[in-house]
Amino acid sequence: IQIQPVDKDDEPASDGTIKIAQVRELQDALRHKAEGGKKAAIVEGAGRMALPAANAFLKTLEEPPASSVIILIASKTAELPATIISRCQRISFKPLPVSIIRDYLIGHNGAAPDEADGAARLSGGSIPAAMKCLAAGFLEKRSETLAAFLSLRPDDTIGMLKLAEELSKRDDLEETLEYLKTMLRDSVVSLEGRPDLAISRSGLFKTAGRGGLTIERLIDSYSLIERARADIMPPRYANKQLAMENLLMGFTGSMAM
To answer: Could you tell me the sign of the dihedral formed by the alpha carbons of 20, 25, 28, 32, in that order?
Structure first.
């Protein structure tokens, strides 16, 4: 049994949430005994469960039907309500090593060694994410966004508003923000004299060499991006354009020399 965010027409939910109707369907399915062994239920994107759905699920999680296992998948514990977390046993899965992902991409996708290595480093330990990085134009699009961020000036209000609008319309906004965080992290470790710890070796983010830029400023910018990412995701659902405008104003201020 598997559920994920969908709407009444079985298409991806417009607001990206798991609805109470889906939880009810899962509960009904779990009431029927398995012919043998255990019945497993997997809830993908559990962090995007609407609050009414989460509340409806509490009793089932607390006293699951006999011979059943319920698995909630979430990338961040903070995405789940405390009432849900208190009724679950947490099992953390570590990211796959870069070497394993690189070898997989070479062996199963026919990727060139250099491409596979770059995608593996940017994947966050996820094979699907690494495969997405191999898509044509993926890194180019990310680098263009990064360049747009770095080219903004604190007094360029029109530029900020234009870029904020463009970002708010992107389907891959969350992934783009995660990429920017990665570049900032790489700059921090470079400033600390450990470029060997950098995740990306593309050399796209050269801010570590800009005079006057400090680790404190980089960390402030990282925090701004993470705050914006959290704001646009469930359960907050902040207006994306406003969130991006706030991010860009704060980002240009923290990165200004």
So the answer is: negative
